[in-house]
């Protein structure tokens, strides 16, 4: 596809010239990701093409058996350390085809519009890595915002050996940030590694709870949200939520 060649014309105009649809209909189809030029999906309005290029309108069931163009997408991301993923933060630059996990089996075609209106109901600190859910589905976002209803599992690496007394002290905590903690449990994975399960979501909650027992955190990773595990998703990569997966 060309934008500099003087022979190039707007894709929507060319589609109308070919009798595929009206220019207005073409803009709708382009925005929905249902137009292919020389075998590639084009979803940017104002794109230009040359007269010899092949243009096709793609049927919805060929795009994906799991998603229609108007559906809202949900993404699972293995956030790396160094990026804060809290509501209002700008971190969608990672969401590009090059960072998509190779074993994403959703069959969903990536579209630029999937990057718009993404929200993360359950934030994750810049110092942490692990699972982040991004969604365009407002109902899902509102559901996840009820953090006391969903377990979050963390693996925590410490700078020192945690004693049984220190772990007991952590499990005795009943309040955080003036809010009651539900479903809170810390257990030992190894001498310097803990497994924490908590139903709370606030900046610094993991290191602050460790600080109660005078333990300092070397690193921590969110390994699970409710029924969704991080699994083998490589750090820095993302995949679409599969239709059969439940949160």
TrEMBL record:
<dbReference type="InterPro" id="IPR020103">
    <property type="entry name" value="PsdUridine_synth_cat_dom_sf"/>
</dbReference>
<dbReference type="GO" id="GO:0000455">
    <property type="term" value="P:enzyme-directed rRNA pseudouridine synthesis"/>
</dbReference>
<dbReference type="InterPro" id="IPR042092">
    <property type="entry name" value="PsdUridine_s_RsuA/RluB/E/F_cat"/>
</dbReference>
<dbReference type="GO" id="GO:0003723">
    <property type="term" value="F:RNA binding"/>
</dbReference>
<dbReference type="InterPro" id="IPR020094">
    <property type="entry name" value="TruA/RsuA/RluB/E/F_N"/>
</dbReference>
<feature type="domain" description="RNA-binding S4">
    <location>
        <begin position="9"/>
        <end position="68"/>
    </location>
</feature>
<dbReference type="Pfam" id="PF00849">
    <property type="entry name" value="PseudoU_synth_2"/>
</dbReference>
<keyword id="KW-0694">RNA-binding</keyword>
<dbReference type="Pfam" id="PF01479">
    <property type="entry name" value="S4"/>
</dbReference>
<protein>
    <recommendedName>
        <fullName>Dual-specificity RNA pseudouridine synthase RluF</fullName>
        <ecNumber>5.4.99.21</ecNumber>
    </recommendedName>
</protein>
<dbReference type="InterPro" id="IPR036986">
    <property type="entry name" value="S4_RNA-bd_sf"/>
</dbReference>
<dbReference type="InterPro" id="IPR050343">
    <property type="entry name" value="RsuA_PseudoU_synthase"/>
</dbReference>
<dbReference type="GO" id="GO:0160138">
    <property type="term" value="F:23S rRNA pseudouridine(2604) synthase activity"/>
</dbReference>
<keyword id="KW-0413">Isomerase</keyword>
<dbReference type="InterPro" id="IPR002942">
    <property type="entry name" value="S4_RNA-bd"/>
</dbReference>
<dbReference type="InterPro" id="IPR006145">
    <property type="entry name" value="PsdUridine_synth_RsuA/RluA"/>
</dbReference>
